[in-house]
Amino acid sequence: MDPEDYSELIADLAPDLRPETTPVRNAAGRTTASVVTAPRAVPDFAASAMDGFALDEAALASARNGETIRVVGDTPAGHGVNVLQPGCAVRVMTGAPVPTDSEAVVPVELTDARQTGPAPYAIKIDSLPSPVPPGWNIRPIGEDMNRGDIVLPAGERITAAGVGALAMLGIGEVETLRTPRIGLIVTGDEIHGANQTGETGTEATTASIFNSNLPMLAAAARGLGAEPIEATSSDDADELLSVLTRMQAEADLVVTTGGISAGAFEVVRQALEPDHSTFRRLEMRPGSPQGYGRFGALPMIHLPGTPQGAFVAFHLFVGSLMTGQNLRQRWRKGILTGSGLRRHGNAVTFRPGTFTESGEILAADRARLPDFATADVIIRIPRATDSPQGDESLNAGTVIDYLEC
Ligand SMILES: Nc1nc2c(c(=O)[nH]1)N[C@H]1C(S)=C(S)[C@@H](COP(=O)(O)OP(=O)(O)OC[C@H]3O[C@@H](n4cnc5c(N)ncnc54)[C@H](O)[C@@H]3O)O[C@H]1N2
Ligand code: MOO
To answer: Does the keyword Secreted apply (predicted)?
Structure first.
């Protein structure tokens, strides 16, 4: 099975997240639960786009004849609008409301007025465009956004600009999906000291290894806007079941690593198959053994233990569940550079890639975890049998699929 078909198969494991109200200032990284529309226009008054003088039609005509224009008001930004008497000008600052009958704002640099100090009694205008464009240097009501316009659709990850756009509209709170909690359970007796990640500086003992998957997947979960709950289990099935029982009250989705292939101590498989989970091999490398299921109502994804397999599969499958997008929709297109990439005969393969200065993608030679550490993207290499001409390799200049990582 292809990774894309598998992503579709497990799509209903996406956690069901209730909406909650979040203050806009804390909303970056959260996902909108419903569409947000503009409660008002921005700007909601006609505003000057320049420091200068607002003129009506009669004043513009006199200015063109070289006549002096009387200045009848001064409006700093944030102050109430002035009345423009016919044939006169009002000094306005950028962002200030312009008087109702204004035809244009003439920048101060085009007049004989000083840029600082009190407003002059009268100005002469040195030059004007011909013709003066209608509403020149005046931002009309709704130039940025009209009342009722969609600011953010439902399901949108809120960025810093999103926070700014909501704040610009005077929106103080937004309906977001509750932050998903991902329970991470790494398994295996060889994981040195269970929580051991190297931070204490002690050496891993013979035949044991440092735990790379747990801190790596916790970081990846946070990258998806989720809150990780970290746990480990030995190769004892009862221990794994008791960790899962605890997770039922704490997590919206559980991701396990390890213990799912063909060995004699495959704890995840032994504890969960067939009552809770299904296991299969996908036609992909790394990360071919995979599993999924439910512990009661709690959705579970089972990733392989190899760090590179866990890393790739998390981005592919957990990333799809958490964004609500099938993997097929998530691939982006890029241009391959460097030497050709060999296709695997019957499996889709993944390789770390980095963007070059010219915006092309250079693939790493190998796909071990340290090779992903400096990568920008995961490159998808289709199998040789996927190529209409049976090409054995992908050459520089080929359009490839990639996923940011
Ligand atoms: N006889 C067969 N053996 C294996 C097959 C197979 O088809 N037949 N498939 C291989 C492939 S491909 C993969 S991928 C692995 C998947 O194995 P598991 O998911 O059961 O994972 P483990 O055996 O528990 O561990 C594999 C590997 O990863 C290391 N590991 C596990 N957890 C962590 C962790 N938290 N941090 C760092 N490293 C971890 C573990 O020590 C093993 O070296 O199976 C192949 N075997
Ligand atoms: O599928 Mo496994 O290729 O070693 O990660």
So the answer is: no
CB atoms within 10 A of CB 121: 9
Q: Which mutation among 288, 302, 303, 351 tests ligand 2's pocket best, with the greatest number of atoms within 8 A of CB?
A: 288
When divided into structural domains, the chain yields a total of 4
In this structure, the answer to whether residues 360 and 230 fall within a common structural domain is no
Instruction: Decide whether any atom of ligand 2 lies within 6 Å of the 304 Cβ.
Output: yes
The answer to whether residues 26 and 168 belong to one domain is yes
Same domain membership, residue 162 and residue 115: no
Candidates 234, 261, 282: which one to mutate for ligand 1, based on the most atoms within 8 Å of Cβ?
A: 261
3-class SS of residue 111: strand
Closest-CA residue, ligand 2 atom 3, reads 286
Query: Chunked in runs of 10, what are the mean pLDDT values of the chain (405 residues)?
Result: 97 92 96 96 95 97 96 89 93 95 96 93 94 95 96 94 97 95 92 56 69 95 94 93 97 97 86 96 96 98 97 97 92 96 93 97 96 98 82 90 97
Note down the domain range covering 72. 47-139
The answer, yes or no, to whether the previous bond of 274 is cis (omega within 30 of 0) is: yes
Whether residues 322 and 342 fall in one domain = no
Q: Which-ligand-closest: CA of 3? A: 2
